[in-house]
Design brief:
This protein is of the alpha+beta class. The protein has 13 helices and 21 strands. The longest helix has 19 residues.
Length: about 450
């Protein structure tokens, strides 16, 4: 049995942001995560770059400074105009014979800009982003947290099992690593799992899919559906010494990969960014529709990886990316799934109104200005005119006074979530929750 003041389930961006603020204030904190280290999707799903965009100051700057001390730990990259690869809309720019070496569209190149330059999103075609090695981020988190180790217990490799409710509050949770179960009791609990597994299991009201226009009056809303933002299996490639090299599809994926021909990918968009060591991160936008992924259930991972191998074979044989090799396919990157219906639901109108005009709620826990960015069927990418605020009420459940949500599954509509979901924003959101809880304790 473990007793703490705060228990955080999930050690991704929101989880580490929340933990940092708590342990910095001397609050005894337990962090539980299924992965072997800190970082969540930033480390294990290949989302190892921070998109350009405004952010409150905080842990992200310390992480950058720590990663920058490592050789090839991180670098700031400049976005190439027309930053999406292989969209048929730009075929005329490739002289009908696309060559990755000749026309490196989407390739973001290392530059000598400052970290502060990554806070400027507008105009997007000239923006800067931070690209880092996944392991460098985990090491940076551990190095920063080491100064506060007496206040932190981290249980890695543990899955959430169940919660225990008493007197209208979350009294404790049970977690397991497959061999050992642990019961954790705390004054407050923070669900930072992305899929909000704790909040859902506790019976909190949640949403999944698109709201209709009649729900919140959002200008871009259509009709209700189970459609969610597309998912991506990001993968890593590297240059080989053989200019004619083409990878063989592994036998375990060959059968599934054969189902997907070039037609499936003719309008597929990918974003390619260079790692500090010269490898490339390829983000397929998306690999499959979000509702398609969830409908596949246990087969989703196998099918997703087979689709990547089919896509990669298409790139190598039809888009002149021979000479490269696929080094690694990361765990699936989920942009959206279940979302809390909390004390305030952030809507498209809030984002479009911006900081000067949006209705004010309680304290602000994060600011952002990322586009309304939905991948897949009925997708869109609509830039915003100014930053907007995210209030603490978006992290508060209606059902339990001691349960908060600090992740992409907080209280946002489908459209608002498409902007809010970025790593630095979620980290700031977590820090805001951590600061709030530290004051209560």
């Amino acid at each position: 049995m473990i007793k703490a003041q705060v228990c955080i389930v999930g050690a991704g961006a929101g989880g580490i942001g929340c933990a940092y603020r708590l342990i910095k204030h001397g609050i005894k904190t337990v962090v539980v995560d299924k992965n072997p280290d800190f970082g969540g999707t930033m480390v294990f799903s290949g989302v190892d770059g921070w998109e350009p965009g405004v952010s409150l100051d905080g842990l992200h700057r310390l992480l950058y400074e720590a990663m920058a001390k490592e050789q090839n730990g991180c670098h700031i990259v400049t976005q190439v105009p027309n930053g999406n690869l292989f969209s048929s809309a730009w075929e005329d720019q490739w002289d009908g014979n696309y060559s990755f070496a000749k026309y490196p569209w989407a390739l973001a190149l290392g530059s000598a800009y400052r970290y502060e330059d990554t806070f400027k999103r507008v105009p997007y075609r000239f923006s800067k982003r931070l690209q880092f090695e996944p392991g460098a981020l985990s090491r940076a988190v551990n190095a920063i947290f080491a100064s506060y180790s007496e206040h932190l217990v981290a249980l890695f490799g543990y899955q959430y099992v169940s919660c225990h409710i008493g007197d209208g509050k979350i009294a404790g949770i049970t977690v397991s690593n497959g061999d050992t179960e642990e019961k954790i009791f705390a004054d407050y609990f923070v669900d930072a799992t992305g899929d909000i597994i704790l909040a859902r299991d506790a019976g909190c009201e949640t949403a999944f899919g698109c709201e209709g226009h009649e729900d919140y009056g959002e200008p871009s809303a259509n009709e209700r559906s189970n459609r969610v933002n597309g998912v991506s299996f990001v993968f890593r490639i590297a240059k080989t010494n053989d200019e004619d090299h083409v990878d063989k599809i592994p036998s375990q994926y060959r059968s599934d990969a054969s189902k997907y021909n070039a037609f499936r990918f003719k309008d597929t968009v990918s974003f390619i960014v260079e790692y500090p060591n010269g490898d490339f991160n390829v983000n397929m936008l998306p690999t499959m529709q979000g509702d398609e992924y969830f409908a596949l259930g246990e087969n989703a991972d196998t099918v997703g990886r087979a689709m990547i191998w089919a896509y990669w074979h298409y790139l190598q044989t039809e888009k002149s990316m021979n000479g490269f090799t696929l080094k690694h396919i990361y765990d699936v990157g989920i942009r959206e799934s279940h979302r809390l219906k909390g004390k305030y639901v952030l809507r498209e109108q809030d984002l479009r109104a911006g900081m000067l005009s949006q209705p004010k709620k309680g304290r602000t826990v994060a600011i952002a200005d990322h586009a309304l960015d939905i991948h897949g069927t009925n997708g869109m990418c609509k830039e915003l005119m100014m930053p907007y605020e995210i209030p603490i009420e978006c992290t508060m459940t209606n059902e339990f006074s001691n349960l908060f949500v600090a992740c992409r599954g907080a209280s946002f509509t489908h459209i608002a979530a498409s902007s809010v979901r970025l790593s630095r924003t979620m980290m700031s959101l977590g820090e805001g929750v951590g600061e709030y809880l530290a004051e209560q304790l």
